[in-house]
Design goal:
It contains three helices and seven strands, in the order ααβββββαββ. By secondary structure, the protein is an alpha/beta fold. The longest helix is centred in the N-terminal third of the chain and has 20 residues. The radius of gyration is 23 Å and the shape is globular. It starts with 5 loop residues before the first helix and ends with a strand.
């Protein structure tokens, strides 16, 4: 049994030891910043990643919204980083017609590459992603 005099000293030592181990195991800030650095993308550049579909809106007027999850990308000016440190990772793909929606449908839940002709940052609360691709074309399946 530990005496009362040793108990507070032992507790402080244990806390310092645990804190030191936790700090030593964390990567440095520089390593983390370099790891998550956003690659730039320009209009006409290629976005690749997993495509998902989200249903939103009232039951009778449901709209399917497509979202591409990619590595962090830095958008061309004036959009820049979309007020994010690493650049957007989620891109809302806007289907302007039934033909565009049909082109995306086979890729839901799969990896796809899109040529992004027009990119911008999300600006309203109804948008599900960090950035929006309004003009695009499917290149290939990965």
């Amino acid at each position: 049994m530990i005496s009362r005099r040793l108990k507070p000293a032992l507790t402080k030592s244990a806390v310092i030891l645990v804190a030191g181990c936790c700090l030593a195991s964390l990567p440095s800030f520089d390593a983390f910043a370099q790891q998550k650095k956003a690659k730039p993308i320009t209009n006409g550049g290629v976005l690749s990643g997993e495509l998902t579909a989200l249903r939103s809106g009232p039951k009778k007027k449901r709209v399917i919204t497509y979202q591409l999850t990619s590595e962090p990308r830095q958008l061309p000016p004036p959009s820049g980083l979309c007020n994010l440190e690493t650049g957007p990772e989620t891109f809302q793909i806007v289907a302007n017609s039934d033909a565009e929606a049909a082109a995306l449908k086979p890729y839901i839940g799969k990896s796809v590459a899109l040529k992004a002709d027009e990119l911008s940052c999300a600006q309203s609360a109804g948008q599900f992603s960090d950035a929006i691709v309004t003009k695009w074309s499917v290149l290939t399946k990965h």
